[in-house]
Specification:
With about 90 residues, the protein is mainly alpha-helical. The chain is about 70% helix and about 0% strand. It starts with a helix and ends in a 13-residue tail after the last helix.
Length: about 90
């Protein structure tokens, strides 16, 4: 190893030669994790947009129709529930 090689080394290279490493701060680890999470969110959103079966307007309309149908079926099967749990009148 030459003197010029030592001048070109940074802190992490020198510590690596000694078998050591610099300590990462909590903030650095947190920012790295949040960055990875943010990239995952963006990739997931992009994939969802590319693979969506219908345009947003059609999908929202279909979901609303299913919700209204489900409510109507639930009301038809079970009346208001005013007499549920009470004894029949004699």
């Amino acid at each position: 190893m030459k003197l010029q090689d030592l001048k070109d080394m940074d802190k992490d290279d020198f510590l690596g030669l000694l078998g050591l490493q610099s300590k990462r701060s909590f903030t650095g680890e947190l920012l790295g994790s949040l960055g990875t999470f943010g990239i995952g969110l963006l990739v997931g959103a992009g994939v969802a947009l590319l693979l969506a079966p219908k345009p947003g307007r059609d999908l929202r309309h279909e979901l609303r129709a299913k919700i209204h149908r489900g409510k109507a079926e639930g009301e038809a099967k079970s009346p208001d529930g005013a007499n549920e749990g009470s004894a029949p009148a004699a």
